Amino acid sequence: MKKLLLAITLLFSIATLTMSCDKESVIDQNGLPTTATQFLNQNFKGIKVLSVVEEKEGLSGKEYDVLLDNGIKVKFDKNGDWLDIEAQNDSASIPDTLVPTSILSYVKEKYPNAGINSLEKERHGYDVELTNGLDLVFDTNGNFVRIDS
Question: Quick one: fold of 89-149?
């Protein structure tokens, strides 16, 4: 019984510690990792950064949400690698230059009247949301897998 109580107490303590570590704060653009700054300068030259929010994600580290003047939001991991690129307006598209070639080709061939509204890197590939509301899943090589509902 003591071991069970100890295990529950330990689990509760870890959960509380993890949740209490989650924290968001607005930071200056200069607080972004160098890789993120380079990505923004290369892909959004001349576009003003409206805000940068640093999220401390408990044990998993930091993430950065960057909102740009053109309505695009980019999420970066602690190393400055992009995780998610999203146009805030559901009918707006992200720049084609940011989309892997195989994914862009598939979307232009199968959905010529739709743009890509968001592109998210996931562990096993990419999640792509189109301006027509479809949510497509691609593997890490950019091969179409399925339509998510």
Answer: Inhibitor of vertebrate lysozyme, Ivy (3.40.1420)
**8 A C-beta contact, residue 82 and residue 42:** no
Architecture of domain 22-84: 3-Layer(aba) Sandwich (3.40)
- CB–CB of 136/147 below 8 Å? yes
Q: What is the value of pTM for the model shown?
A: 0.79
Mean pLDDT of the chain: 87
Q: Which pair of structure tokens corresponds to residue 13?
A: 């303590």
Alpha-carbon distance 120 to 75, whole Å? Answer: 9
* DSSP reduced 3-state for 50: strand
Q: Could you tell me if 138 and 118 are in contact, meaning their C-beta atoms sit under 8 angstroms apart?
A: no
Q: Tell me the C-alpha distance between 135 and 146, whole Å.
A: 9
Low-confidence winner among 17-21, 39-43, 124-128, 135-139 (lowest mean pLDDT) = 17-21
- Number of other CB atoms surrounding residue 102 within 10 Å: 15
d(C-alpha 84, C-alpha 118), whole Å: 7
Express each pLDDT in 16-50 by its tens digit.
555 545 688 888 888 899 999 999 999 999 999 99
Are 121 and 84 in contact by the 8 Å Cβ rule? The answer is yes
